[in-house]
Amino acid sequence: MIIDYDQKTVVITGGAGGIGYSVVKAFLESNAKVAVVDYSKDALDALVKDLGSLGKLKCYSVNLSNVEEIAPAVKNIVDDFGQIDILVNIAAIMGGGDALKMTVEDWDRAMNINSRGLFFMMQQVVDQSMKNNGGSIVNFASMAGIRGMNPPMCSAWYSATKGAVVALTMQAATEWAHFGIRVNAVAPGGVETPAMRKMGIPAGATDPIPLKKLNQPEDIANAVIFLTSHMAQMITGQTLIIDGGASIVGF
Hints:
- This protein is an alpha/beta fold and 251 residues long.
- Helices cover 41% and strands 15% of the residues.
- The chain has 7 helices and 7 strands, in the order βαβαβαβαβαβααβ.
- The longest helix has 30 residues, at 104-133.
- The protein is globular, with a radius of gyration of 17 Å.
């Protein structure tokens, strides 16, 4: 079934590459207006060049680890688009590493972007728009925030930030339901993105996965489209695992 977003406004953080690119494309193809928040101006310019012909797309260069930049950025989006109907929080840094070698700087940098930046983006979107008209939020967690994973595919700091996203999603869904806001999360397993390929996909990575393959970015985008649509109107506070079945088997 094709979902028509009928020119609703979607804000997507981390939309300039990898999974984010596919999510932006999916919303534009579903007749949404899209505001993309990302750090790299060059990546944002390339995104507009690639996808700008599909619909209304505007980009905003924001450093989400600097909380002071978030409220003004959201105000700019509201001024440009009007009310915000949907927020998709994808922006994050990822990486593997030995917990015994993790530094305070590693921890703080990841928390500032993956968890703190995500929360204050939610807060500002709700406060400046959604509390008046309702809406839907999808946060990006990870299988790493639900169960332990072997390095180099994960790290203590990454797992901690994504576990925080799962908890924040449930709490936000609880607190903001009376505004007519639904808050859910997706927890992808391995996704074949440039960032994951750069980390190095171990040989045999798909062996324990019942479907015997990693996610493609489009698989995650399809789930986001569903969760933010009217078809999921009674789903809130949930984390949807998308991992080809890896989490249901012992290995």
